Input
Amino acid sequence: MAHITLTAENFDQEVLKSDRPVLVDFWASWCAPCMALSPTVDEVAGEQDKVKVGKVNVDDQPDLARQYRVMSIPTLMVFRDGELVRREVGGRSKEEILEMIGLTPAKA
Output
């Protein structure tokens, strides 16, 4: 499944009321580390059906960034049952992202 573009209008329904864990990527198009992380986040979104993946463009959604106190990007957050359970700032490997979500990476 592809990632979901999150906005102030759909964040409550897609993240806080989700029946699955949600990985949220706060990013911006001018942020080189965000651009480097994006394919990995998209890969997780395409491979995992146990988790929903959403992206928040901080330039388009400054109120969401402010609400969740995003001071540096990329920032990854994991929500479960409407609660923020994990926050990491900076680039992460696919394995680290899966671990954040609570999934073990697939063994080769």
